[in-house]
Amino acid sequence: MTQTDDSGSLPISAVLITRDAEYHLELVLRALGVCSEIVVLDSGSTDRTREIADAHGAVWHEHPFDGYGPQKRRAVGLAANDWILSIDADEVLDDEGVTALAAIDWSRADPRDCWTIRRRPFIGDREIRHGHWVPDDVVRIFNRRSHNVSDVAIHESVHPTGPVHRLGGSLLHYSYLDLAELFRTDYFRLKAEVFRARGQRAGGAVLAARCGAAFVNSYVIRRGFLDGAAGVVVALAAAAHSVVGLALASTDQTGSSSRA
After folding, report:
1. pTM for the complete prediction?
2. Cα 68 vs. chain centroid, distance in angstroms?
């Protein structure tokens, strides 16, 4: 039997970070009504993000953005419940996922347990079914006494320290509005910071090899060609993400190589 609080909601805090997230936020928050709390940590939105969050009764906090991992860890720390559903502002938990979440007996759940859920990527209204994005099972439900989000600036994740279960349903990930958005310079610069901190650099031959391997993996090995023109651009984005951050870290501010 599912344990709920006095309002009938699950003893789970849905936690998300935002900045100018109005486009999908209404759908995202509507699906989280089963949770007893929604925590939003914003980093300077100038659109309708707060208005939408307030309309759904979200607990609003603000803090300057300091990297995806640190920002999400801060948001987790602001939650009232130990059980956390970590979700992005462009991810919609589908009806099957909501039902599966409500079916768990939270009164008996072990804090060491966590749950993965399948994430289905979209560009605009089109689902991407192949390429390096698929499959994409991510840990998003956990107890903060046993787990937390990794403290890294980009590509943060929850690393399980106990049993991992699979939640039914999906997260509909509305990653990008169109193909052009796949090439985000903010991601490239965050990756460059990570590489610089590690002291990693690479010359042209290594960068070219990484670029080619990433494209072939997404477009050929992972059958991105089945997604048509979108599959080509997704593979090109994979190639760009594999090299641009490292290339930035390998050059000085004038763009000249820092390797002999």
Report:
1. 0.88
2. 9
